[in-house]
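Comment thread on ticket #2218

A.B. wrote:
> Attaching the input chain for the structure job we discussed in standup.
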Amino acid sequence: MRLFPVRRQQGDPGPATALATPEPALDAQAIWFELERRDWTSLALVPATPGLSTMPAAIALSEVCVALEGRPLLILPGERADLGRLSQILEQLSLARLADAGRDPIVVPVASLPESPPAVAIARAADCAVLCIELHKTTVADARRAIALVGAERWLGYLVLGGRK
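C.D. wrote:
> Ran it. Output below, let me know if you need it in another format.
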């Protein structure tokens, strides 16, 4: 997935400002249009490769949501979820299902499933999941393991993310 850098302008003491406002990444747009076909309130972004962060994908999906619907996704960081944080995230996902349709959709980036047992519970509790794979690093076995741990019926599709920095 291509993400566009945010740079500081010379002499700008404030927060970084974007030099351009590009369209959100095409693969994030494709996932968003697939999401629109479903009745959902929550989405888990699950990396197939250990150590791969899915937060950039969450941000890209939020950018698509803002561009198309004028509102951001609620991002619940789950990449470092321990048992205490797990109960908070599961409660938020449960409340989202009970809330009215006007509530902002929730996306939860998590750690890879072998690295984080709470990530399995989060991915199963979300309405659907997207598998995030890393080009030239994710193995077929890693992807199959993630699909099996969550359940094949939950998967919406996949996003290809760039290499680690």
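A.B. wrote:
> Thanks. Noting for the ticket: The chain is about 40% helix and 15% strand.
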